[in-house]
Structure formats: structure tokens, C-alpha cells
Design goal:
Strand content: 35-45%
Shape: elongated
Largest sheet: 5 strands, antiparallel
Bound molecules: zinc ion
Distance between the termini: 16 Å
Structural class: mainly beta
Number of helices: 0
Number of strands: 9
Oligomer: single chain
Radius of gyration: 17 Å
Order of helices and strands: EEEEEEEEE
Length: 104
């Protein structure tokens, strides 16, 4: 199950960007991958397209395997596991396993 969502802050726990934190900009549930702002940057060589862009090298965040990141709680600011809970009013929320606060 994927517990990370767009706009979450995550900590990278494996790979060349281990230890970096960033904001999730894209979640790809089928591939079990996420794109994190400023993490796993790759240089892409772009060809010129007339009237659209000039040729050059651009920096682009490449997708990471979901198992390489862990959610950072927005309440206690610690990397954490979340547990899904259903509230009395029926809302499904994620709960931080560290501080027991609702993350959503
Ligand atoms: Zn927490």
C-alpha cells in the first residue's frame, strides 16, 4: 500500500540522494514510484524544437522507487510510518506512528 501522497514531505533513505528531504510532486502508484522535488536529478539533453525551446541540458527530477523514501510527519517533523484509521465520521486518515497525530 502506498502511504505517500502528492505534496507530502519525504526523506530519502536509499540511493545517491540518501538523507535528502523534498516534496512529492508526483505519485505513480502502478509503478510504485514517486517524483520528489530536487531529488534524483538527472541531466537531460534536449534537442532544439524550432519555436519551442533551445537545445541544451536541463535538470529533471527522475522517479524514485517508493521503498526508497519515507514520509516525514508534518506534525512532529520526524520520518515515520503511518497507519490508516477511519474516524468516527467515516473519514479515512493517516496517523503518525510516532506522535499519534493525524497527518492529513
Ligand atoms: Zn508525527
Amino acid at each position: 500500500m502506498i502511504s505517500v501522497r502528492k505534496n507530502d514531505t519525504v526523506l530519502v533513505i536509499a540511493g545517491k540522494d540518501k538523507g535528502k528531504r523534498g516534496t512529492v510532486t508526483q505519485v505513480m502508484p502502478r509503478e510504485r514510484r514517486v517524483v520528489v522535488e530536487g531529488v534524483n536529478i538527472v541531466k537531460r539533453h534536449m534537442k532544439a524544437q524550432s519555436g519551442v525551446r533551445q537545445a541544451g541540458i536541463i535538470d529533471r527530477a527522475a522517479p524514485l522507487n517508493i521503498s526508497n523514501v519515507v514520509l516525514v510527519c508534518n506534525k512532529c517533523n520526524a520520518p515515520t510510518q503511518v497507519k490508516r484509521t477511519i474516524l468516527e465520521d467515516g473519514r479515512k486518515v493517516r496517523v503518525c506512528q510516532k506522535c499519534r497525530e493525524t497527518v492529513d
